[in-house]
Amino acid sequence: xxxxxxxxxxxxxxxxxxxxxxxxxxxxxxxxxxxxxxxxxxxxxxxxxxxxxxxxxxxxxxxxxxxxxxxxxxxxxxxxxxxxxxxxxxxxxxxxxxxxxxxxxxxxxxxxxxxxxxxxxxxxxxxxxxxxxxxxxxxxxxxxxxxxxxxxxxxxxxxxxxxxxxxxxxxxxxxxxxxxxxxxxxxxxxxxxxxxxxxxxxxxxxxxxxxxxxxxxxxxxxxxxxxxxxxxxxxxxxxx
Amino acid sequence: xxxxxxxxxxxxxxxxxxxxxxxxxxxxxxxxxxxxxxxxxxxxxxxxxxxxxxxxxxxxxxxxxxxxxxxxxxxxxxxxxxxxxxxxxxxxxxxxxxxxxxxxxxxxxxxxxxxxxxxxxxxxxxxxxxxxxxxxxxxxxxxxxxxxxxxxxxxxxxxxxxxxxxxxxxxxxxxxxxxxxxxxxxxxxxxxxxxxxxxxxxxxxxxxxxxxxxxxxxxxxxxxxxxxxxxxxxxxxxxx
DNA sequence: CATTTTTCATTTGTCAGACATTTAAAAACA
DNA sequence: TGTTTTTAAATGTCTGACAAATGAAAAATG
Lengths: 240, 240
What we know:
The structure is a homodimer.
Chain A: H1 11-24, H2 37-44, H3 48-60, E1 64-67, E2 73-76, H4 81-98, H5 103-115, H6 118-124, H7 127-141, H8 147-163, H9 168-192, H10 195-210, H11 214-238
Antiparallel strand pairs in A: 1-2
Chain A binds a DNA duplex through residues 10-12, 36-38, 41, 46-50, 52-53, 66-74.
């Protein structure tokens, strides 16, 4: 771990950046323990609170986890898909809501990404996948379902769809992207309410997956896309 | 801002979570200022250092930025694509390197995502895009190029390719995914060295973009994919 | 009066020392 | 040997102090 000064950022920022680089460059192994806060403070020649603030920064990014007590300390964290996923979604949601992205743009991106796994999904879907999708479609048909429950099931369904591709990286990237756009999508389904049609699209897509018909999946997704876009447009015009 | 206690996490974690939710739920507007650290400490009934650690957590996620001096403080940050991008890449790189993802899986995901924008790229590419791609291809042909420079140009080229789709969300998601996999990819190009072939694939893809031939782009990307996979396999077997 | 300089109050950044709390290992004990 | 107690090390928190930055008000200056 080096000990140089670079820009004019705060000490705690610099220190956290240095440790971060050590982690990324694998100077520090996963699971290994950092020196105690007191030792780090001596090494970097700063106060303990400065070190603590640096460590909190790293903890916020799941780069380390801390443990209290004897033989406790800060350990290099093994980042799992779940954690990374959570973070990605939070960031993406904020990004979308703060940069007034057009609904059309978000919609286009979302379905383009989903279509990206159609080919794999058609080849690799299991019977379990089909059953799970059927389960969600059944749920979505219940008339006593709240909007929240319907949307939650919608998210699950699309996630299963993505998981059909049996590529964890694809799942990670896509699930993040799709879920991040869901708040925008929910705005639509909450207001316009068009469950029957959406469910019918889901059914079509499901049949294509069952038949291992990649092109059919793509068509189904594209249909759902244009329907969603229309809904979005109507909603927008109703505000004028 | 509420003031309840929930789980058994540390105070600073809880406080940062509470503020985070206030930001996501838009209780707090972008650009607005949080109370000063002293005021927050009083509000939450904790010491100032606890508040500071909570704020550092939020700063690490780009949710707030802090400014010193009179009328300084912590401000809700407007997250821009650039920042979110950086974070996403860091997380993804660590995720990939820590979860021993198969090269084949990463490769498949990467090119599937890139193909997702072929259709749009074919329709929307501008002449400027073409020029920029040609520029990178020229660079990649230079024989005195270091491996680092070649890889950097490779990244830029694929990023331009993605940007051809003129969908900022697609660009954000894909560029993140593609760049995160680059270290794995670099491992290949560094060792096996086969620039001529890669450049020839790039040229084919470029021609398809120029001709607005979406299918051609897909074929070109798929060819590049299978070639890259072969290289990866050879490299793996040479280690046996 | 207008402009420049100075002062000042506010706020974050850092440090030092103290105590609380947690936890694993060592020591004492039965 | 097995159980309980003690102890030491580490993070978590609080307090008070000072440094440094910074904008605004006040004062000095022409």
